Amino acid sequence: MKDRGEIMKPSLSVKLWSALPTPLDDKLRVDGSAVDRMIKDAVEEGMTGVFLAGTCGEGPWLQDEERIRLIEHAVVAAAGKLEIAAQVTDNSVPRVLDNIARASEAGATLAIMATPSNYMNPTGDRMVALFSDVARNSPLPLGIYDLGKHRPVAIPQDRLQEIYHLPNVQMVKDSSSCPERRAMALAARELRPELQLFNGNEFKFIEYLEAGYDGCVFGGAIAVPAEMRRIVACFQAGEIEEAQGLQDEMVRVLYGIYGGEKIECWLTGLKYHLVRRGLFTSTTSFLGYPLTDSCRAFIDADVALRHRNIEQQTG
Questions:
Q1: Domain span at residue 131?
Q2: Taking the complete model, does pTM exceed 0.85, yes or no?
């Protein structure tokens, strides 16, 4: 296998998005300088777009004004070189539309909406009406964030296609890891070829490429962009066995950053990885995940290897 750091650009037919963590200072405010560095890194690594204030981005915990500051910093740093998507999920149509209006004013180009985490009387009809009313009135194109059973309230599987057929729905971030829900998304795209399907599970990258998804929106993408590019390049070249080996290596690295297969350190591990790379200045988060000694040691070694690879390429 080739060196981990070697750059291989995928074709434009596969879109690589990063669902970014949010850098915070010790007062839980957005660190604007770190946002600038993070976005410039995404541009340099060949990302198509970034998803801000999602689950990994701690959007549900950010103050409204901080979420807008995050978008504004990202838009300026991207300088038109990235699509900027923002999570706008909320518990009512007026609240979601207000979030979309503010994100649009800040410069976001796409609004992404999941099912609300606290939604009363979540019948299928009410769920379809929620998304339909938002899509019909949104000033931005809408993306649907499907977490399936990973969310307390899910879009009923038999109602997914109704939502995916809405004219203003442009993309799906499928983090459900459910083959049946994936089949629904693919069937919707058969009728609406303009609908873009993105895999949100970094541990099943090749599986979704083989199914025909357009790309990915991963929370861990900022940690393993080189691995992602190489997987896509091998996949497109028909080198499936090598692509699978590269995915296995990427999963190993991600588990190391996240603190093992139980994801014990998750967001804190990811932020520490970014601190060691000079992108973030703090691991501060709302969620309070630990940073174990073994996770710290793995990240220190991984970043040291990354730096050696870069020195070899530039030297």
A1: 15-239
A2: yes
